[in-house]
Give the backbone structure.
Amino acid sequence: MLRAVRENEAEPRELAEGRRTVVTVPRLSAGVITADLTRLGAELEILRGTAAWAHVDVMDGAFCPQLTVGPAFVAAVASTGLPVDAHLMVEEPRRLVPDIAAAGASVITVHAEATRHLHRTLQEMTQLAGEPRSFLRGVAINPGTPVQAVEPVLELADLILVLAVNPGWSGQAPAANTRRRVAAVRELAAQAGADVLVGVDGGVSLGNAAEMAGWDIDVLVSGSAIFDPRRSAGQGRSPADNLELMTQALLHAGPAGPAPEMAEPAGPARKIGEPAGSIQEVADGRQ
């Protein structure tokens, strides 16, 4: 199964009759574009043992306003041993997927809106990933895109990423309909019998992370809430402090009851939503 469950729980959520008896702790995909790139190695080291993935926003300045990084940056992050979650916010991502895969990305997500041939793109990604797959295949949708856009490719995807903001800039407030859209994606996947991860990206803050983690999601993407750019002016906490607060928020999300005991910072038990085994083993479980 793709979804990781809370530590010491062996079974995934129960899908029968729409009931979910096990609540997962979402894995944290930490956006690194908002990190201090002049000391990227040190910033990435903060994530080790805590964040499941290092999220890299690849933007081309056409699909969304910003122009950021490409395969070389993905390769640099992957060289640290951190699994890279590459989010391609680019026009016609088919042309870039092979280079991102060669750079060592563990997750590659394309936008439904960015290609004329989404089904073909996912077919090519499936072929490129091989069997057992070398990376997980993701599809993202913007706030204004109907969730039905992902229905034709659910059987070809491992992750559906629901954007809570329009792509391009960090620090935006999440769209009010995001929770409903997550539920709609879950329903589509259940109807199709597709075992996919569902994630939310955008608008995540230390104040709303626990609430969003309770939306029946498997992945939560957050960058600016961790690598707070205001810290240079002495107004924000350190990234390590922010990451600790984010970790606590995710662990405290879910059904009422005692909060899980918190481990010491940087300890291996604090991995949030960590897959059972390597990223390759997670891909192996998706048949």
